[in-house]
Amino acid sequence: MKRGIDIKLNVRPIFLSLVHQTVFEGPCRFGHDEELEMAYDQMVEAELFEQYKKDLKKYITDPQINVMECIYIERHEDFMSPESMFEAMTVDNDEVDLYLFNTEIGRTDITTEFAQRYKKPIAIMPYNCCCLADCVPPLIARGLEAYGFYDWDDANKTMRAMRVRKVLRNMNVLVTPRYNANKSFSSESSFNSLAQVTDKFGIKFRVLNVHEFIETTHVVDPTTNSTVPGRNINNLDEADMVEIERITDELIAGANKVGMERDMIIKSVKLWYNAQKQMKLYDCNAFSMPCPDACATRRLNQEQFTACLCHSLNNEMGIPSACEYDIGAVVVMMILSNLSNSAAYMGNTNPIFYDENGDAIPERVITAENLKDIKNVPNLYYTFHSTPNRKLKGFDQPYEEYGIQPFAYSGWGATLRYDFAKDAGQVITMARISPDCSHMMIAKGTIVGGGGVDSQNCSLSVIFTVDNQKDFFKKQVRYGGNHMPLVYGDYTEELEMLAEMLGLEVVRA
To answer: Which candidate in 59, 133, 253, 384 could, as Cys together with 152 as Cys, close a disulfide (CB 3.0–4.6 Å)?
Structure first.
């Protein structure tokens, strides 16, 4: 099971030199004395090649972008393009995701033929005088993928977006439906067609019926499972239970407040551990499970677990995991977590309305206490569920402070609790792909509060401001969905780049 965050973008830098074999001056060549000799050209090009390699090392520092060995190509003023030159440039071509050229006048035709031959994305390095605008437009006009980088920041953002596109092409989602493998009974705003998602983005889906999935949590002879009697299924075993108890004790020890019994937490950890076990079997790196569809079976009540903790622990591991069988959310969570290198949070996303005096009105999980210091702040929105995680500020950062509370009033269904109010001032990025895979809604917000830290059910909220509440709402109900996944930080520019790469029309709110 290869996580999205473990997938790298392989970039092959190529330096195209021009070495004159004879001495002459002309409209495109000038110099004094030895500057016109072949040896001088070779010396200058060698220096430029070394500088190119230094720039690559200095400016491309993202560990998820793998800069491959730089290839030096020497061309002469006869402008020949021998097959050996193309063979030298395409070593390990199958592994390369992007070719990054350093080129100048008299060599730009090479990039055109290269792109036509191999149909691989190519880019021209930043600050490459004249060649950026000379090389890229004719390639795009031919329907080929090409980029001209304005500066190294632009280069890095574009490459990060390209890496996420590659991640999507390597995304396998374990889905556990009860009735309908396309949608659940609570996520109508998910994709209209999973087949369309596969065709457009390359994402694959592996289906395991929710009854079979739940039965694999039982530590019994797997051939006795009632859903598939006689088959040797991938059930949990005694060794798994030892690890499950260890993980449970770690969760309890690390929490600042625990509002439920250990044996009830074990049951929810067991569901998560089983999800991990099945994802490894099915070679998946994302997960989703229905809520009302499964709830109505009474099996969750019988087993005394919910998927809340499962989603929280998956997400903080870099395994996107969405509530309510919302495949639209799990795909966007894969995108956001890989752009930000941090875990995403998803939930029901709604505006907070105001009374005639301009005071924010408490509703659902938003209490007067939650609003007391922000009731006059305009353009309030909130997202609520019970699936936060401890890696909102980065997969490479220490665990954030958390608590544990039950989902059910009767004390079962472990959920992590996180105080979003302590992150007031934090910029967040939200996104959603429309159900027909045609648009991507992109928005920013700023956290101003939160609530539900000591409550049960889907009550944990993050309250934030948006630029224009009505504009956000109108675009959400047209192009978005009920769940608007979010991450910490501003990644709107990278999202716009990615949307263009995926053939999605951008909707900014």
So the answer is: 59
Which position has the token pair 């690390």? 254
Tell me what pLDDT residue 499 has: 99
Amino acid at the residue 151: D
Calculate ∠ Cα 429-431-433, nearest 5°. Answer: 170
* Residue 9 burial by Cβ neighbours in a 10 Å radius (0-12, 13-18, 19+): buried
Does the pLDDT value for residue 183 go beyond 80? yes
Which residue type, as a one-letter code, is found at position 393? K
Name the burial class of residue 416, with classes exposed (0-12), middle (13-18) and buried (19+) by CB atoms within 10 angstroms of its CB: buried
Place of tokens 């003023």: 77
pTM above 0.90, yes or no: yes
Residues contacting 45, CB < 8 A, separation 6+ = 17, 18, 19, 74
Residue 366 per-residue DSSP state: B
Mean pLDDT, to the nearest integer, of 31-37?
Answer: 81
Using only the alpha carbons of the chain, give its radius of gyration.
27
How far is Cα 162 from Cα 145, in angstroms, rounded to an integer?
11
CA–CA gap between residue 334 and residue 165 (Å, rounded): 10
Q: How far is CA 297 from the centre of its chain?
A: 32
- H helix intervals, 216-367: 238-254, 262-282, 292-295, 299-303, 308-316, 327-340
Query: What tokens does 304 get?
Result: 């005394």
> Which pair of tokens denotes residue 429?
């990025």
- Dihedral Cα 168, 169, 174, 180, nearest 10 deg: 90
Q: Cα separation of 441 and 439, whole Å? A: 6
- Please provide the CATH number assigned to the domain covering 4-167: 3.40.50
Coil, strand, or helix at residue 495?
A: helix
SS3 sequence of 82-131: CHHHHHHHCCCHHHCCEEEEECCCCCHHHHHHHHHHHCCCEEECCCCCCH
Place of tokens 């019970």: 386
The two three-digit tokens of residue 24, written as one number? 């002459």
Cβ atoms < 10 Å from Cβ of 478:
11
* Closest of 310, 318, 311 to residue 339, by C-alpha: 318
Q: What is the mean pLDDT of the chain?
A: 96
Domain ranges in the chain are 4-167, 171-508
pLDDT of residue 129: 83
Pairing of strands 321-322, 286-288: parallel
- Residue 450: HSE in the Cβ half-sphere, 13 Å Cα cutoff: 23
Phi/psi region, residue 503 (left: phi>0; alpha: psi -120 to 50; beta: rest), is: left
Answer whether residue 29 shows pLDDT above 80: no
Pairing of β 439-451 and β 505-508: parallel
